[in-house]
Amino acid sequence: MPKSVAARRLTAGCVVYRGAGSQRRYLLLRAYDYWDFPKGRVEPGEEPLAAALREVEEETTLRDLRLAGDAFHETAPYSGGKVARYYLAESATGEVSLPVSPELGRPEHHEFRWVRAEEARALVGPRVRGALEWADARLASAR
């Protein structure tokens, strides 16, 4: 991993979706009043893509992801220099649960929703909205 990426405190996750066209839904997770896609810290020596898949599984139990290549969207630095990297992944089943985090003793998130892009835009903030727009544009151009 380039030094500049490591220095930025990289987190990685996936914009997870299921369905196509008007049936497409995106998975959002809520912690308190903040909605985001599943993501978390890239551990030392871990590849960002591996971290993204690990974080999705840890936070949602989803294991059936099919990656849409290795392209990604990165946010501008936020919250003390963090950068979030999102990959695009499809879930065939959409069977999500929010397991208890061993570190927290409770789930990391309060709820999840599968939502259309319009509802997702209304729920997320500008940083996450950039990842949504990137994913939505990639899926639209893949038709």
What attributes characterize this protein structure?
7-stranded mixed β-sheet, 143 residues, disordered N terminus, Nucleoside Triphosphate Pyrophosphohydrolase, 9 strands, 29% helix, alpha+beta, single chain
Task: Give a concise summary.
By secondary structure, the chain is of the alpha+beta class. It has a single domain, classed as Nucleoside Triphosphate Pyrophosphohydrolase (Alpha-Beta Complex). Helices cover 29% and strands 35% of the residues.
Question: What is the fold's blueprint, element by element?
Answer:
Layout: H1 3-7, E1 10-18, E2 25-31, E3 34-36, E4 39-41, H2 48-60, E5 65-74, E6 83-91, E7 100-101, E8 106-107, E9 111-115, H3 117-123, H4 126-141
Parallel strand pairs: 1-6
Antiparallel strand pairs: 1-2, 1-4, 2-3, 2-9, 5-6, 7-8
Give your account of this protein's structure.
This protein has 143 residues and is of the alpha+beta class. It is built from four helices and nine strands. Strands 1, 2, 3, 4, 5, 6 and 9 form a seven-stranded mixed β-sheet that branches. β1 (10-18) and β2 (25-31) form a beta hairpin.
Structural class: alpha+beta
What is the name of the CATH architecture? Alpha-Beta Complex
End-to-end CA span: 32 Å
Overall pLDDT confidence: 92
The count of helical stretches stands at 4
The number of distinct structural domains comes to 1
Element order, helices and strands? HEEEEHEEEEEHH
Strands, total number:
9
Beta-strand content: 25-35%
User: Over all CA atoms, what is the radius of gyration?
Assistant: 14 Å
Characterize the largest beta sheet: strand count, sense, and whether it forms a barrel. 7 strands, mixed
Q: Mind telling me the CATH superfamily name? A: Nucleoside Triphosphate Pyrophosphohydrolase
